[in-house]
Amino acid sequence: MQAVFVAGCLILSILACSQGYISPVELTATARAAGLLSTTPAPTLTVMLPSETLEAPTSLPTFTEMPAVTKTLRPTSTVDPNATPKPPVQYYTQSGDTLPSILGRFGVTRDQITSSVPIPETGLISPNILLIIPDLLTDVYESTIILPDSEVVFSPSAVGFNIDGFIKQAGGYLSTYVEQLSTGPTSGAAIIKRVALENSINPYLLLALLEYKSHWVYGQPRNLAETEYPMGMVKLEQKNLYQQLSWAVQQLSIGYYGWRAGILSELPFSDGSFVRISPGLNAGTAAIQYLFAQWYDKLEWAGALYGPDSMPALMEKMFGNFFIRAQSVEPLYAPDLKQPALELPFMPGRVWGFTGGPHSAWGPDGALAALDFAPPSTLSGCAVSQEWVTAMAPGVIVRAENGIVIEDLDFDGIEQTGWNIMYMHTETRDRVAVGTRVETGDKIGHPSCEGGISTGTHTHVVRKYNGEWILADGPLPYELSGFVAHNGSVPYEGTLTKGGLVVIRDLNGAVTSYISRPKN
Q: What is the per-residue pLDDT for 50?
């Protein structure tokens, strides 16, 4: 296998990517675990892989073995031996629960939990299993579930919702709003739909939040701040509806997927105070609580979420009883759910670079669900590539726009149901058309920098099930051609392992980031 050498060193293309409205960030594991997600821009780096046709080796090289990534759980509280012990918590497991997420939320260790039946150390736990858990937490805001998970993510509950018709009938400021985006003049209804699809956030919730904060749906904004910053984030670079909604859904994603993974346990309020989240809540409620904590102090927050004029009460008036709606679509995934067989997203016999370990599916702070791969090239940056991104499984194409291709693996033509794959940064040239049925290995399009912000040509691939992004290193491991994804210490770092082989996402362009798909 030939390679291009410069000054005696092999040069690989390494790149950073993000989707949506602002540039990529890398969040430290410590800050994310504490719920304090400070951000720093990802470095601008480029990748150069050999442009010659590279034959897949008969067996991949044995790369350096990497130690397993360990997850530090929140330490348990120190119990005063002289204090009267509190009675234990009786907790019934929910859909999506895992042992690590329960340990993180309740601040306990595995041997402190008593269960009515054995619970798995890894993978999903069946719902409605009784767990007896010591009550060790302090400063907990005891609260109840606000919204089902299916009303936060763009789930089957919102399939068929006529966004345009609803906004037009409501007749408020949103119905006549037009904003200039990179794709041209865009109506308010089109922005709601775009943000809902890009982030997989329920349009019912987006409209309820917009009406609650700034009266855009049924009425008019009352002042300049509500007009220009309708989601309450007053920053010039986040002015107008698309940027404002994009910021809001990132806060929802921090809450939802942080809770799902068991790494979010506290709410940081706008006044600098903190409160421990009630551990028995669901991911959807944690998402709403986290967003509202960015807006209000603790007293205002409680009224906005649990008072008589709360946002959930408004949402029910607008769209009906969401708990009844959820009964027909939840749980969003069963405990025995398995990922379908997936292959690496490029042609057999070609060698690409593994350039992005688990990182945000969309925007800077979303679910750590995406992986990046860069094609071979002798040019750096956003160079035109003749390489092909290929289908990871059989399916039908349901969306192809703005650099995004969505493949529906259950062939029902609905993006919000079953397994779907997003191929991001897919060039318009030669891109597969909506409605096309594809088999594993069929051509999707060329990798590029189209869609979002990217510093180099690559593809960004993410799994979604019933509208929820599926974490790459979670209870449903991301497996491609037998390689399984693992988180690094920060987003974008990480490894792919297959038996004794380890492929390392490497910023310095080491050969250990090479990966190929066998011809057979």
A: 38
